[in-house]
Amino acid sequence: MTGLVLVRYGELALKSPPVRRDFESSLRRNIVQQFAREGLELRLGSDRGHLYAEVADPGPAVRLLRRVFGVTSVSVVHEVATERDLLRAKLLELAGPRLAQGASFAVRARRVGSHAFTSQELARDLGSDVLEAFPDRALRVDLTHPQIELFVEVRGPRTYLYFDRFSGPGGLPLGVAGNLVALVDGPRGGLGAYLMMKRGCRVAFAAPPSGTACVQQVLVRFEPAARVHELGAERSAWRQALGSLAETVHADGVVLPLTVEQFPGARADWGETVVFSPTVGLLDEEVRARWGEVTSLAA
Fold it and tell me: In DSSP terms, which residues pair with 141 in a beta bridge?
């Protein structure tokens, strides 16, 4: 293993200790399954609020981790002992190739645990080290809109240095909230399914031809093991097919791509079946914009 990726999760850390442990176990399992399906190896470590993925190649690892629900962001990090000289040397080694002539930069430091310095003191001192190390580059500190940000995260005896944060989907890990069936006939259906997955639900997809691309090119990348049922183009047959699939997978409800005007009729049509429609209040342009964000994460 030659690379280390810091994996952050947010909402999980707010749960009670027993629930958090269960959710963290689900998150770990989902990460391992994503890597296994791609034939990639990793080792997972953890501390409170973070996981650490040791991988052979950080590039593919970041791509996969950004598709795991529960993950808020990831960074490729460089680990050193929390010793001032080692920390300074590593930061200068990593920052040197990135700091062009006349560039502005900021050191963003944070720490967990008890240390002889504050986060502000560490950021100030390391910023001074950078300026002193490259006097011929006319570098300048800009804490508001820097061209380069140097992140330093001190966690007890270990410190992690990184330059970038790549966002993940956030939410809750798949599998902590039940099973659903979603009608995916286009971006509105795709976004509705995605939003329920983000709340921890495992979703089986029912897709007519108009929704096939949404499922195969986007949604299954977040859940490669999801069940996919192909529907015909005839809308009149969708209701029965969706109901049969819901019975087969023992779904707790269905996810439908409804507008406000369509909701009352759908609610009456489905009787006692629980109907979810998380996009019901969104305009078409809002759906397209948010679906574009989902598509970017799946890329």
Answer: 105
